[in-house]
Specification:
515 residues, mainly alpha, 4-stranded antiparallel β-sheet, 3-stranded antiparallel β-sheet, membrane, DUF6350, DUF6350 family protein
C-alpha cells in the first residue's frame, strides 16, 4: 500500500473518535435536560397550587423541596404521605414526561445518526438507568411527611423512562423494521390494527367521560363552590384536570361492563352500589344511587369499536384465516394495552374509606378482547375482503416477462413503515456519504464527504485532500466528472444535458479554443 493511499484512513481516525465522543456528550446533555425539565414541571404545578390556596403560605424553598416527591409522582412512583399510602397517581403529567423523554431520545438518535437496532440500546439504557438511579436516590433522601420505597422508585422511574425512550428511537433505529421482517404479513397487519383498536378504546372511554361531565355539570359546579375560596376551587379543578386520563380509562371500564370500584362504591352500566366519594369536581360524575337504565346505552360503544377493527381487517390480504389471525392479534394488543393502563391507574387512595381504587384490570382486559375480537371477526367474516381493482396495462393484460414474485416483493417493500424525517435526511445524507456509528473505516472516496450533522466541532473543518481528477484524455464523459457532494443544491436532479445545448456548448468552446 502506498503512502498516499494510507493518508485518508489515518486522517479519518481522529474525526471518527471525536464523533463518537460527541454522541455521548449529546446523550448526556439530553438526559440531564429531561431530568431538569421534569423537575421544573413538578415544581411549577406545586407552586401553582400553593400560590392559589387560601390558607397556605408560598415559600420557594418549600416548593423546591416538595418538587422532589412530585418528580416521583410524575414517574408513577407510589408515595406515603403522613402514613397514608397514595398510589392512584395522575396520568396526564406522566404522559407529558414520557413524550419529553421520547422526543429527547429521538433527537439524540437523529443528531448522532443512529440507524441500526444495535445502536439504539445505549440511548434506551442510559435514559432508563439514569432515571432509575435518580428516583432511588430521591426516595432515599426523602424525610418528613413524604416517604417512598427506593426499590419501587427505581423500578417505576426506570420502566417509565425505558418505555418512552424505546418508543422515541423505535422508528429511527429500525426497531419497527426488526419486528416487521420477523413476523408474517397478517401478524404485522394485526399489530398495526391493534394500535387502531387501542385508539378506539380510548375514544370510547372519552365519549363516556364527556357524556358524564355534561350530565353532571351542576354537581361539578357545586363541588367547586364547596371548596371555599377561588384559589381552592382552582386547585381542585387543576387536580381534576390532571386525572382526566384516569377518567378516560374508567369510562372504558364502565362501557365494557366491568365497571370500577372506589372504596365501597361500585359503578357498572346495569348496576351501581352507592358509597362515599372524595369531594372533587371530576368525581361528581359518579352516581350516588342506583344507575339509570339509559346508562346501558354505553354498551354500544364497544360494539362500534369492534366493528371498526373488523372493517380495518377486511383490507388484510389472503384468505379468511389470515384476516381472522389479524383480528386475534389486534384484540390481543388492545387487551394488553388496556391491562397495563388499568393496572397503573388503580391503587390505594389514603387507605381509608376511599381505598382501594380498582378498574379490575384482568376482567377489563378479558372483556376488551371479547368486545374487540368477536364483532371484528363477525364483520370480517361476513363482509368479506376488500376488492382492490388492479389497473390493466395499456399494452395488454399481462406484460411479457413479468415476474409475479418480484411484484409481491415490491409491494411488501412499499408497505414498510417509513419516517418522514428519515426521508428528508436520507436525501441529504446520500450526498454526504456518512460513515457508520460503530467506527468503520471510510474508503478513500468517502473522506471528503464528512457528515454535516456531526460537523459541530471546529476541528472537523480541517483542509480536505482533494480528489485525484482523471486526465483530460480520459474516455469519461464531461458530466460524469461532476461530484454532486460538492454542491449545496438538489443532488437528486437529472444531470443529462439536452443534445442541442451540448452541441452549442461544444461549438462555442471549440471557437474559444481556436481564438
Amino acid at each position: 500500500m502506498s503512502v498516499l493511499e494510507s493518508i485518508p484512513h489515518a486522517i479519518a481516525d481522529g474525526p471518527r473518535e471525536r464523533s463518537l465522543g460527541l454522541r455521548w456528550w449529546l446523550l448526556i446533555g439530553a438526559t440531564c435536560t429531561v431530568l431538569v425539565l421534569g423537575y421544573l414541571l413538578s415544581a411549577g404545578l406545586i407552586a401553582l397550587v400553593t400560590a392559589t390556596a387560601s390558607n397556605a403560605g408560598f415559600s420557594p424553598l418549600v416548593v423546591l423541596l416538595a418538587a422532589l416527591p412530585g418528580w416521583l409522582v410524575l414517574h408513577q412512583s407510589a408515595l406515603t404521605i403522613t402514613g397514608a399510602p397514595l398510589s392512584v397517581l395522575p396520568l396526564l403529567p406522566t404522559a407529558a414526561v414520557m413524550l419529553l423523554i421520547a422526543a429527547a431520545s429521538a433527537w439524540v438518535a437523529r443528531r448522532s445518526r443512529l440507524r441500526r437496532p444495535d445502536q439504539a440500546w445505549p440511548v434506551i439504557a442510559t435514559m432508563g438507568l439514569v432515571h432509575a438511579f435518580v428516583g432511588a436516590a430521591i426516595a432515599l433522601v426523602l424525610a418528613g411527611p413524604f416517604r417512598a420505597v427506593p426499590v419501587d422508585a427505581f423500578l417505576s422511574c426506570g420502566l417509565t423512562a425505558t418505555a418512552a425512550s424505546a418508543a422515541g428511537v423505535a422508528n429511527r433505529c429500525g426497531l419497527i423494521y426488526l419486528v416487521w421482517e420477523r413476523v408474517e404479513a397478517e401478524v404485522w397487519s394485526g399489530l398495526r390494527i391493534g394500535l387502531l383498536a387501542l385508539s378506539a378504546v380510548v375514544a370510547a372511554g372519552g365519549v363516556v367521560l364527556l357524556v358524564g361531565i355534561c350530565a353532571s355539570a351542576p354537581d361539578m359546579v357545586a363541588s367547586m363552590a364547596r371548596s371555599g375560596a377561588a384559589g381552592d376551587a382552582i386547585g381542585t379543578s387543576l387536580l381534576s384536570l390532571l386525572y382526566l386520563p384516569n377518567g378516560v380509562l374508567a369510562g372504558w371500564a364502565f362501557a365494557a361492563g366491568t365497571g370500577l370500584s372506589l372504596g365501597g362504591l361500585t359503578v357498572q352500566p346495569l348496576h351501581a352500589t352507592p358509597g362515599p366519594v372524595p369531594d372533587l369536581p371530576l368525581l361528581a360524575i359518579l352516581p350516588s344511587q342506583e344507575g339509570p337504565g339509559w346508562s346501558a346505552a354505553a354498551l354500544v360503544l364497544p360494539l362500534a369499536a369492534g366493528a371498526l377493527v373488523g372493517f380495518a381487517c377486511r383490507r388484510v390480504s389472503g384468505g379468511v384465516s389470515h384476516r381472522l389471525l389479524a383480528v386475534g392479534v389486534a384484540a390481543c394488543v388492545a387487551a394488553l394495552g388496556t391491562l397495563v393502563l388499568a393496572q397503573v391507574a388503580g391503587g390505594d387512595l389514603g387507605g381509608g374509606q376511599f381505598s382501594p381504587v380498582s378498574l379490575r384490570p384482568l376482567e377489563l382486559a378479558a372483556m376488551t378482547m371479547c368486545w374487540i375480537g368477536i364483532p371484528a371477526a363477525a364483520v370480517t367474516w361476513l363482509a368479506g375482503p376488500v376488492d382492490f381493482e388492479e389497473p390493466v396495462p395499456a399494452g395488454g393484460d399481462t406484460a411479457e416477462g413479468a415476474d409475479p414474485a418480484a411484484d409481491a416483493d415490491a409491494s411488501e417493500t412499499d408497505s414498510l413503515p417509513v419516517d418522514a424525517d428519515d426521508v428528508n435526511e436520507d436525501s441529504a445524507e446520500d450526498a454526504e456519504s456518512p460513515a457508520d456509528a460503530d467506527g468503520e473505516q471510510p474508503s478513500t472516496s468517502d473522506v471528503d464527504a464528512e457528515p454535516e450533522a456531526d460537523a459541530v466541532d471546529p476541528d472537523d473543518f480541517d483542509p480536505e485532500i482533494p480528489h485525484a481528477r482523471e486526465p483530460l484524455s480520459s474516455t469519461r464523459s464531461a458530466h460524469s466528472e461532476i461530484d454532486p457532494s460538492e454542491f449545496d443544491g438538489d443532488t437528486g436532479s437529472d444531470w443529462t444535458v439536452d443534445e442541442a445545448r451540448r452541441e452549442a456548448w461544444t461549438r462555442d468552446g471549440g471557437q474559444n479554443r481556436a481564438d
